[in-house]
Amino acid sequence: AGSKLREVFDKISNLLSGKTVYCGNQSASVSQHPQALDFVCYKVAEKFVHQGEEEVAAHHEAAFPIAVVASGIWEAYPRVGDLILATLHRKCPYSVPFYPAFKEGTSMENYQRMLGYQVENSTVDTQDHFLKRMSGMIRLYAAIIQFQWPYGDKQGPHPHGLKYGWRWLAQALNVEPMADVTATVLFDFLEVCGNALMMQYQDQFWKMMVLLQDYYIPRIEEITSSTQKGSLTRLKQFVKTCMEQKTIPLPRGTLPPSFWNS
Q1: 45-87 tens-digit pLDDT
Q2: Which ranges does the record mark as transmembrane (predicted)?
């Protein structure tokens, strides 16, 4: 409910603004230690990204309530927004978008970490778990850039709005694709943010979709093996349907205006 999200926002905002926040029998305030605000800003940003990595990855519709609170905190506390972006880029380089190249002298474990895999005690993420986490973070990012906290005091421009989504899409279509990953993140991003980009950029957006369908998807196909077809098939079908119907549907779970009355 909208009222519940407001409670969550207020509690985080109170903590960041220096007020005493109570949780059970404990209280906390950033005024209690000279470095407390630095620590709290970092942990809040880390928590938002972790929710994308875990909760959104498991339940796609969770992206929207998490994103709208993150957007509001970003607007009110730009420092936290910078840290959200930095944490997101570190954990999911495809949110830049950036595809790290292997450099001589780099260990395979470190390279896998650069790509976003979790590596612990020489045990590496399974491909499915890795893609699921990347998907969750991309979906959270795509939701953040289109939602603005409706109760902001200033209600200025979105601190990281749709123009960044447009830039992400343009840049994503200008880098060499990576098997499995590229098709996954493009599908997730367009399914969450495609409708908003279509409404904002109209003819220019459809030109970008033509480029994706006619030029970029064939490039992904060239590097995709028979065991990696799942994400590519989803992307191709999604783009094909959107091009035929000349529209991109609203994503499931989006927050309508009536949500804020709940």
Answers
A1: 999 999 999 999 999 999 999 999 999 999 999 999 999 999 9
A2: none
Instruction: Kindly provide the b/e burial profile for residues 167-195, where b requires at least 16 CB atoms within 10 angstroms of the residue's own CB.
Output: ebbeebbeeebbebbbbbbbbbbbbbbbb
The domains located in the chain, with CATH, are: 1-261 (1.25.40.510)
Amino acid residing at 95: S
Maximum separation of any 2 CA atoms in the chain, in Å? 60
| CA dist., res. 238 & res. 15, Å (int) | 42
Query: Angle formed by the axes of helices 181-201 and 229-245, to 10°?
Result: 20
Helices and strands in the chain, H and E counts = 12, 4
Is residue 181 within 8 Å of residue 92, measured between CB atoms? no
CA distance 190 to 193: 5
pTM, full prediction: 0.94
Strand partners, 27: 22
